[in-house]
Amino acid sequence: MPAIDEELERWTRAGVVDAPTAERIRAFEASREHPAGLRWQVLLALIFGAILLAAGVTLFVAAHWDELSPIARFIVVMGMLVVLHVGALLVRPHFERLAIVLHGVGTVAAGAAVALVGQIFNIQEHWPAGVLLWALCALAGWALLRDQVQQTISLLLVPAWIICEWSARTDGYRSSDLFIARMITVFAAVYLTAFLQSKKKLVFGLLFGAASVALIVGTSMLTEFNSGWHDWASTPKMPAALLLLGWLCVAALPVLVAWRLNRSSVLPVTVALLVAVILPHLYRMSSNEYPSRWLFATPALAAHALVGLAAAFLTWWGVQQRSRALINYGVVCFAIAVLWFYFSSVMGKLERSFSLMLLGILFLAGGWALEKTRRKLVRHIQEAV
Description:
The chain is mainly α. Helices cover 76% and strands 3% of the residues. Among the domains are: 1-33; 35-169, no CATH class. It has 14 helices and 3 strands. A hairpin with a 6-residue loop joins strand 2 and strand 3 (294-299). Helix 8 (176-193) runs antiparallel to helix 9 (201-224) and helix 12 packs antiparallel against helix 13 (324-346). Residues 33-38 have low confidence and may be disordered.
């Protein structure tokens, strides 16, 4: 009971409880202590087992796919799902974690099943509808099983369907990709901050990891959106109805989700929304030999400053929420913003040898300063607790 011992020692030093009371609490907790949970080796074995099982099933079906009739293919696909979920139900009374893994593999396999059934019967292609069906399967699993694996898959698939549906319906219109970048950025901010205080470690870990990557990808898309060649004259404008729907998905929906999940996360989501709206407009315009049609843009100094300030805000918000994960992530994002500014705006203006020397100094001095700041912030939140 290391956790309760540390708490009791801290309470005793603070005078909240006396020594005899602390001993009685310690004895009571020891008497009701449950057997230790699964060790990390077992969990790792379950994860790898699930991956190998899914890979084996996929290879087996692929090897015999051409030999099967359409009906036989359909039976194999549906039978795969039935075996996984029925097997999970059978082992649940004896090994609940294995049942959770099997149900999770079944939900992931449902996405492949949707795609394969569409291929078998040559159903009219609208691939976002397949993502929607997959998301509905995950939501049904979450509603029935109430476990963290189904919840995580559901929370990842719902915004994925929104982005896929938008991409399919606005393909060819002006600024379609810009709205996709904004959606990715703002929804990543929701998942990055809304589950900081969650007791569901699996949900928090997977969503935080996915959002960490998505936020960097979305910001990169926003900064590079205008850094290419665009034939605006021949690209049609987006209809007003789609434009309104896009802004609802970018602005209203993420804020409402953040309010529903964790009201304190509304502020960082709003900041991410402002960055997603402002950042694409902070660039310098130039043109080639066809100035009437083709434009080329590079991020301005204000764009670099905005990204750096957003990273600093994430670090500050991590301190406010006492989240080591968010502090560490904010420091990494700030370092990436500095390197992005150096490579895009500084390095090209210097001689090669001097730019490399300056880059080495930046890594050494900047890395030392960031690490010192990170440790100070983490120590601050530990002392506050």
